[in-house]
Design a protein that fits this description.
Belongs to the histone deacetylase family. This protein is an alpha/beta fold and 390 residues long. It contains eleven helices and seven strands. The protein has one domain: Histone deacetylase domain (Arginase, Chain A, 3-Layer(aba) Sandwich). It is globular and about 55 Å long.
Length: 390
């Protein structure tokens, strides 16, 4: 029987627009929803409209002073600090309301699971994983990922796994729970020597009681589908099987794609589809089927993000799409009003995402990253880092 899946959505999510020419353009969400509807993924699905996160919910993660700064920033004549007013995080009118609504969407998705209405819940507008306790960063004002996790902890959950597959390190979520053994944060990202924010080394393990619960897999630039999936399967399943989370939270940024303009990994939409299948399987086998799905980065706005996230929506709803499915003509016409770039004709890049599982060797470029993370983390969980059976 298919899992029960709730989808949180409102067109008001599109008001989170940092500026007219900012890379994080909400058109990617608009086109993703159009494509999901056009391919029948959302047929019969009742979309759940969220409310803005409350001050109490935001304060689980963010300081009151930071929240005050965000509310006042659009009217402040001399700036308010806290990382606001930069090129990455420009100030815009309605900033608090737009960011709090996205955070509220992730809390609502978490609530759907916690209150038993769903096994899986999706907020594709979420995934703003860089915001810190009192500072905006990396296009992120409020950290909806951390707010949703903190809300689940308030409800009595004792083991939550956060798995971040965005090309950038999930630094804000790691920082929020760095000393908390109830939350295992796992981030797969481009190596910090080669990409902002410059964190996410294998030796970042957590602090105090949280030591061993921060996991980082730093991938070399140029890693493609086969290498990414090899690294994922060489590290992540063993740790989650040991941790046995009650909920798996995933941040699913699509900026690992070869066409993304802000990073240097080389995945395809076909590799993303294989990734999402792996996430769904891990939720089923390690977290009792409880899966909270969030969006994230992704700056190839027209050719990549809508297709990748439509596959993700389909996987979360157990309505998997044929990679060769044709893009509807109505969608192409709408997308063409936004860009003159050539648009895709199918849900595939024509790539083969097959890979060879890690077997304890150094046969592939990513194997040093696999072993570095395994040797840093696995002994802390009673696992043998050099035994591929662990």
């Amino acid at each position: 029987m298919s899992a029960r899946t709730s989808v949180v959505w409102t067109p008001e999510f599109l008001t989170y627009q940092l500026s007219d020419d900012h890379p994080l353009n909400p058109v990617r969400l608009e086109l993703m929803m159009e494509l999901s509807h056009g391919l029948g993924v959302l047929d019969g699905v009742e979309l759940i409209e969220p409310e803005a996160a409350t001050e109490a919910e935001l304060t689980l993660v963010h300081t009151p002073g930071y929240q005050t700064a965000i509310r006042s920033a659009p009217e402040a004549p001399f700036g308010v600090g806290h990382g606001l007013g930069t090129a990455d995080n420009p100030i815009f009118f309605g900033m608090h309301e737009a960011a709090a609504l996205i955070a509220g969407g992730s809390v609502r998705a978490a609530r759907e699971i916690a209150e038993g209405r769903a096994d899986r819940a999706v907020n594709m507008a979420g995934g703003l994983h860089h915001a810190m306790r009192d500072r905006a960063a990396g296009f992120c004002v409020y950290n909806d990922c951390s707010v949703a996790i903190a809300w689940l902890l308030e409800q009595g959950y004792e083991r939550i796994a956060y798995l971040d597959v965005d090309v950038h390190h999930g630094d804000g979520v790691q920082a929020a729970f760095y000393d908390d053994p109830r939350v295992m944060t796992i981030s797969m990202h481009q190596h910090p020597l080669t990409l902002w924010p410059g964190t996410g080394w294998a030796g970042e393990l957590g602090r105090g009681d949280g030591e061993g619960y921060a996991v980082n897999i730093a991938l070399p630039p140029g890693t493609g589908d086969a290498g990414w999936l090899r690294a994922f399967h060489g590290v992540v399943p063993s740790l989650l099987e040991q941790f046995r989370p009650q909920v798996l939270v995933t941040e699913c940024g699509a900026d690992t794609h070869a066409e993304d303009p802000l990073a240097n990994l080389e995945l395809s939409v076909d590799g993303h589809r294989a990734m999402y299948h792996a996430l769904r399987e891990l939720a089923e086998t390690t977290a009792g089927g409880k899966w909270l799905v969030l969006g994230g980065g992704g700056y190839a706005l027209y050719r990549v993000v809508p297709r990748s996230w439509t596959h993700l929506m389909a996987v979360a709803l157990d309505r998997d799409l044929d990679p060769e499915a044709a893009i509807p003509a109505d969608w192409t016409a709408k997308a063409a009003t936004h860009t003159r770039a050539p648009l895709p004709v199918s849900m595939s890049d024509g790539a083969d995402p097959s890979f060879e599982r890690w077997g304890g060797s150094f046969g592939e470029r990513v194997d040093s990253a696999i072993l570095e993370t395994r040797r840093a983390l696995f002994p802390l969980h009673g696992l043998d880092p050099d035994d591929p059976r662990d």
